[in-house]
Amino acid sequence: MRRKSIFIYMIIFLIILFFICFIYLKENVETFNIQVKQNIERNLSMDWGPNEPKLFAEGYSSDILNLSLNFNKFIIEIPMHEKSHILNLTKRIVLDECIFKLNLLHLLLDLDCRKFTTSSKNLTFDQNKHIIYSKDFFFDSDIFQRLFTRFRFFNLKFYFNQVSINNDFIQNVNGQLKFYNDENATLTINDRLIEFFNRPEGLEIHHQNQKFYFLNKNFFQHFWN
Amino acid sequence: MSKQLITFMFFMIFFITATSYYYYWTVPANSIWYDQRAAIEVFQKIIDGKFPLVGYNHSNGIPSFAAFYYIISPVYYFLNDPIELYYFIAFINVLSISIFSTFLYLKLNLSSAILFGVYSITNVWGLYYGSFLWNPNLIPFFMALLFIFTFKFFDTKKTIFFHISGLIINLIVQMSPQAILLVFSFGITIIILNKLPRLIHLFNHAIFHFILISPWLIHTRILNPSSKAPTHSTIFKDFTAPLIEYTSYVGGWGLTQETGKFLDYGTIISPENQFLLPLLKISTIICILLVVSFSFQFLTNRFDQRINISWRNLAYFIGLINLFSLFFFFLGLRVNTHHFQFLTPTIALILVLGINFQVHKKKLSMGLLSFVILTQGTYSYWRAHSESIRPYITDIGYQQIFSEYLKDQCPNSARVRYVTPNGIHTYMQHGELKGIVSSCNWMLVQENHYDLSIIIHDFLNEKFQLSQNKFKNYLIWFTK
Predict the structure, then answer these.
(1) How confident is the model at residue B344 (pLDDT cuts 50, 70, 90)?
(2) Those residues with Cβ within 8 angstroms of residue B414's Cβ, 6 or more apart along the chain or in another chain
(3) Cβ of B424 under 8 Å from any chain A Cβ?
(4) How far is A116 from chain B (nearest CA, A)?
(5) Quick one: CA torsion of B261, B266, B271, B272, rounded to 10 degrees?
(6) pLDDT score, position A20
(7) What is the arithmetic mean of pLDDT over B75-81?
């Protein structure tokens, strides 16, 4: 009887604690917004290691009741990796005037930006086989795994008013990134479906009845050297 | 001799036959990794009288505790071939299941003993981790002893059993620091159940613990205060990983992968996996539902009050251990399947005691548990069969056999590489490189890998030519 009571009291305590937190949160929204902002500041200033991206933001604020963050500018700088690593495809991604919102109802991360800017190196493919192999870059499956752990439960929905890649402009781009498991993801851009398969051999991409392949480092070296 | 004893003896014969079959095929089909080689070096140091204070460094840069090495080094003195040590671990695993089954037979009843034994000899991860040498792989043995001595402590109230239980927990934590939550579950259990010994015993107990971990403390805090490799925070913590790994450990589905984090060469990819993986996932859900339901009953004391109080107390303890596994989730600690080894035989005991204490819907629970046992057993023993026909040439039990086969086929000189879905690997070479004829410049591939990988298919057909020879399930190709 005693153990049963302890357990029930613990549950009641947790429920009361939850309500107190909720009321406290509502009463102190401004303080929390400032704290979230400071938290972002701290995370942006932290050194995550030589292989991790560097993140910069300008003019950011949070709205905790709306579960959203606003950025005037958000910059992702990807550090130089070893030769032919797929992360060398681009060095810098800039997002202008963004609202990043967490939608708990639909389990969505909603990113709405005025502009997406990046520059990318050219890709060359070997088209002599039934699979189109990338000849410039190899794929590190850890990238897929890490993205999957971030988006395991939340799909990323995005809308960019303008996209600039190597100074080519596209208007009104919307899409969704969805991870099904640690081996399979889809990216929809303006209703065009791209499927990604994280294989031990590398990254397999299906797009418009064609199969593209970024081999892993080992196969890449043996195929093209 | 009673009828029950005869039944139990027959069960033990069946039990030993089944595990012998499993380990006969799976022990040689294990690889030997860095950790095993590093551990063997530490055993050798101990035998040479150097007595290191710690073992090799864990992947996070922290040196491992010394207990495991001092326990195994006397065995290494007699069994110094690594595969013999692998068989020894398998023997210890079988022994721990036998000891605990016998304990249940003597202290509870025949059906619980058999149920525990059957669950244990079909449990996917429990069997797998019992098939090779590694620090955390002795944990199930010590967990079985922990439950026996904790039960004795509850039953007899003798402080000596409290001390023994505490010291066993210390050894377990030394083998896998993530098992630290056993300290909390044990502590909270004895506080809530009013079983705290007198202060002087607690003081003595703390001194015992301090002595046991002092080698590690001396090494890391006094002799090498900066020995820890530099680490830094990760940009995002993966809070869900511990939950996923927990479900994998309980249901066994993670072993269907061939490679993954801390799992190089699990089960070689094959078409059967497509059928077995969903089956194991269904079985995982059922097993977790049973475990959660029984744990809830144990923690809220919702069962027949006529049941022996010592069993109820032990049930509370194991329910708490299972509940505390969730702490990894809340703390966002990096956890992999092998860190949950303290759940063997905890989960088995939760299921057995849960069914044993149940008054209503016993048949339903029994039916569900039978499904779990059947699916995990099917997978485990299919896996043993699969390993027997598809071993790797790098596996501990097949390296020598392959080497002899190679020397027989190419007595003068040869070069061997092999291809897996991860890439091309150089394996062995004998004789002069210049003297190797094309037919002895081999590229080996598992038939399954060749059939299921378009990349391997493209690579081999472009650069190599298939020979008529085969080794086990390997196709042998040579340069064009």
Answers:
(1) very high
(2) B406, B407, B428, B429, B430, B431, B436, B440, B441, B442
(3) yes
(4) 22
(5) -120
(6) 86
(7) 93
- How many Cα atoms sit within 13 Å of B63 on the Cβ side? 23
Residues ≥6 apart with Cβ < 8 Å to B351? B115, B119, B287, B290, B291, B294, B369
CA-nearest residue to A49 within chain B is B232
DSSP label at residue B343: G
Query: Could you give the ipTM of this predicted complex?
Result: 0.80
Instruction: Report d(CA B422, CA B404) in Å as an integer.
Output: 26
**CA distance between the termini of chain B:** 71
Other C-beta atoms closer than 10 Å to the C-beta of B105 total: 22
Cα–Cα nearest to B181, from B347, B341, B327, B350: B327
In chain B, what residues touch A219 (CB-CB under 8 Å)?
A: 423-424, 455, 459
How close, in Å, is residue A99 to chain B by CA atoms? 20
Contact A149 B240 (CB under 8 A): yes
Nearest CA in chain A to B240: A149
User: Domain coordinates of chain B in residue numbers?
Assistant: 3-389, 399-479
Angle, nearest 10°, between helix axes B241-251 and B273-299? 100
With CB atoms and an 8 Å threshold, state whether A213 touches B236. no
- C-alpha distance from residue A38 to each of A35, A58, A114, B199 (Å): 5, 13, 25, 46
CB of B375 within 8 A of CB of B275?
A: no
Contact flag B422-A200 (C-beta cutoff 8 Å):
yes
Nearest to B192 among A6, A52, A129 (CB): A6
Chosen from A132, A201, A206 to mutate, greatest number of chain B CBs within 10 A: A201
Tell me if the pTM is above 0.80. Answer: yes
Burial B287-319 (b: 16+ CB within 10 A, else e): bbebbeebbebbbbbebeeeeeebbbbbbbbbb
Q: Which chain A positions have a beta carbon within 8 Å of B458's beta carbon?
A: 129, 131
At residue B250, φ and ψ (nearest 5 deg) are -70, -40
Cis? peptide before B345, omega within 30° of 0 = yes
